[in-house]
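[Automated response] Your request has been received and processed.

Submitted sequence:
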Amino acid sequence: MSIFDDPAATAGVRRFIESGEGARFVPELPLKLVIIDETIVMFGMQDPVGDHSDLTIVVVEHPSLATVLKTAFNAYRERGLTFEDAGRRVPAAARA
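Generated structure:
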């Protein structure tokens, strides 16, 4: 499923971009990640054994871990497509 499959979500992303936010698109991410004050990290991981809808949420306060995960985040971001480029790769029928 793509964000471009949902017109309301697509419009929402467009509004954020028009307000000055950045957005990049990648095929998938290994986990959801939040970094707070470059010290605290919070991430969710799907249970590989049980029901794949179950998440384990981990919160760690450690500046070095935050630095490593920020570096990984930036590597994914740099490889990501802009909103316009990602939209061009979606078939026109899906954007209608």
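Summary generated for your ticket: Residues 29-80 form one domain. The chain has two domains: 1-25+81-96, 29-80.
If you did not submit this request, please reply to this message.
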